[in-house]
Design brief:
The chain is globular and about 75 Å long. Helix 8 crosses helix 9 and helix 12 runs parallel beside helix 14. Helix 15 links the parallel strand 18 and strand 19. It has a domain of 97 residues. It contains 19 helices and 24 strands. The two termini are 54 Å apart.
């Protein structure tokens, strides 16, 4: 860095002490740009034009070392980089070395169409203009990739487009992918559609409607990419056709048709993989069945499904797993073995019906996850726990000895009470309990299979009166360890008071009761009277404050938090 540049940057820092480092860098580059474009006082008096001054003046930006210019570029949006080429000659060559590449068809084509409409004074875009803009987008991508063919390291690259086999540039997509998969890229994101997959509801079965003809499939070449993070969306993937992803630590697959036979086959290509996220992916029937140990530490399975079902069997061994999130419609036989290092676990299923095997499947999964320290469950899980077999109930009782934090997503419906009691009995060392209200949670309907048909029935566990008072033995955490109780999403319902009254009367060592609400600061004004819902919530809030408490040291605090209804 030249002395003049260094002095200018130091002076700029002193003149703007409140700005962050990023803001200072951006302000500095703007100052240098304006200084290049504007004449000095001495030149202004001479009457020279700005073009003459630009030709004769000093190009301060070009004197900045390339390492600093690369650093400045990392803070600017990609769409602004081309403009910089008109400010300094050095930017033109520098753009060929930029460590960030972003090719977003939707963003670039939209700007092109707006420019065309502005020039032609059109109110509505032309349909033929879209194809022309897409062709220009393809030319832009080809041009930038050509200039980056010799770039040593690219920190981040993203290619996002709406893939259609009939598009003019469809034949170019394979070459674009080949370019990105064979460069030294640290983080790569490929997205081949902006339209989500459709799902068909067929009674109790939910099937995925795939777009086989329009789904892009990654080329079958023995790539050995060097990136550490890979995000892939809306395509088909055969990992066994690739070489090894030797440096890959984070793999995020969204709406991907995974054609590998098992999760073991997928992760075998990634020897150092730690984080695996599968969202809305279509897998084979036994994809999540694997005998060998998986080395992943974070596993997220969000709404994955097979070609015909929204459920799948799980049987994996994960001795290094620390974080687990499973979300879906309903589950089948599941065993997550050797999860001895598990810290955080979240199980979220959401359906309006269930059958007896679901409780057994859930209990088997939870027994294998009993080493976790924090656990979150949905209302569906809570309502299914009481319908498990007696032997599984015995194994679950008191098994979560490491669990200190428990979170329920509840709707305060009657069928949740047996499951809540079972879970409290299973967590003898529980210190923090959070009740997060799900406004959509409802009593689920139970079915059983009789004479080749499903018929509704009510399990024995729900045929009760005054359940909380009659079956609350052996809840040791309420007597010895529970210190914090939190309520999220206050509702004006009597069930809230009924459950909280029970917990407060039984929690002998409770220290803090925190109630989060979304009520406005003022109850109402002359211009805007409070709604009936707000009045109910305020009455419930006051009733919770006045509840009797077994602990003499408990502190009640009320905090405001924003909630939005879906």
């Amino acid at each position: 860095m030249t002395d003049e540049i260094r002095r200018a940057l130091c002076k700029h820092n002193k003149d703007n002490p409140s700005l962050t480092q990023k803001q200072l860098q951006n302000e500095f580059i703007v100052t240098m740009m304006m200084r290049n474009k504007s004449p000095t006082n001495e030149e202004d008096k001479s009457g020279k034009t700005s073009k003459e001054i630009a030709r004769e003046g000093v190009d301060y930006i070009s004197q900045v070392p390339r390492e600093i210019l690369h650093h400045i570029l990392s803070f600017l949006p990609f769409k602004h980089w081309i403009i910089l080429g008109m400010v300094s000659k050095q930017w033109q060559d520098l753009l060929r070395e930029t460590p960030i590449l972003i090719f977003d068809e939707n963003e670039i084509v939209s700007k092109m169409r707006r420019q065309v409409r502005s020039v032609l004074h059109e109110e509505h875009p032309r349909s033929d203009g879209l194809d022309e803009c897409k062709q220009r987008f393809a030319g832009f991508v080809n041009h930038v990739m050509l200039h980056h063919s010799s770039c040593l390291i690219i920190k981040y690259a993203r290619l996002s487009l709406q893939y259609e086999p009939t598009t003019r540039y469809a034949s170019n997509v394979n070459s674009w992918v080949h370019f990105l998969m064979t460069r030294d890229i640290e983080m790569l994101e490929l997205n081949f559609s902006s339209t989500p997959n459709m799902y068909c509801n067929l009674g109790i079965i939910a099937a995925r409607r795939t777009r086989t003809a329009q789904t892009f499939e990654l080329p079958h070449q023995p790539f050995e990419p060097k990136f550490t993070s890979f995000i892939l969306s809306f395509c088909k993937l055969k990992a066994f056709k690739f070489g090894c992803f030797m440096n890959l630590k984070v793999l995020y697959l969204k709406d991907v048709d995974i054609l590998d036979s098992s999760i073991g086959q997928l992760v075998s290509k990634c020897p150092v993989l730690e984080d695996l996220y599968l969202e809305g992916c279509s897998v084979t029937e036994k994809f999540f069945v694997c005998k060998q140990d998986l080395k992943i530490k974070h596993l997220n399975l969000l709404n994955c499904l097979t070609e015909k079902w929204q459920s799948y069997m799980i049987d994996i061994s994960v001795p290094q797993l620390t974080n687990l999130l499973i979300k879906g419609r309903y589950l089948r036989s599941s065993a997550i073995r050797n999860a001895t290092n598990l810290v955080d676990c979240s199980i979220d299923f959401d359906m309006q019906f269930s059958y007896m095997e679901q409780g057994n499947f859930l209990a088997l999964m939870m027994i294998n996850l009993r080493n976790c320290k924090t656990l979150a469950l949905s209302s569906w899980c809570i309502q299914n726990l009481p319908i498990l077999d007696i032997e599984l109930r015995r194994q679950l009782h008191g098994s979560f000895t490491n669990l200190t934090s428990l979170r329920f997503a509840v709707g305060y419906v009657k069928k949740e009470l047996p499951g809540i009691v079972m879970l409290l009995q299973s967590c003898p060392c529980l210190e923090s309990l959070m009740l997060e209200i799900n406004h959509k949670a409802k009593d689920i309907f139970f079915f059983r299979f009789v004479n080749n048909t499903f018929e509704p029935y009510l399990p024995e566990a729900f045929r009760f009166d005054n359940y909380l008072e009659s079956l609350t033995r052996d809840i040791f955490c309420l007597q010895n360890s529970l210190k914090v109780l939190k309520i999220y999403g206050l509702m004006g319902r009597n069930e809230v008071i009924h459950l909280l009254e029970f917990l407060l009367r039984k929690a002998l060592v409770l220290e803090n009761l925190v109630i989060y609400h979304d009520l406005p600061e003022e109850c109402g004004t002359r211009e805007s009277a409070p709604s009936i819902r707000e009045l109910h919530k305020r009455r419930t809030l006051q009733a919770l404050r006045d509840l009797p408490r077994a602990s003499s040291v408990v502190q009640v605090s009320v905090e405001k938090v924003e909630f939005w209804d879906d």
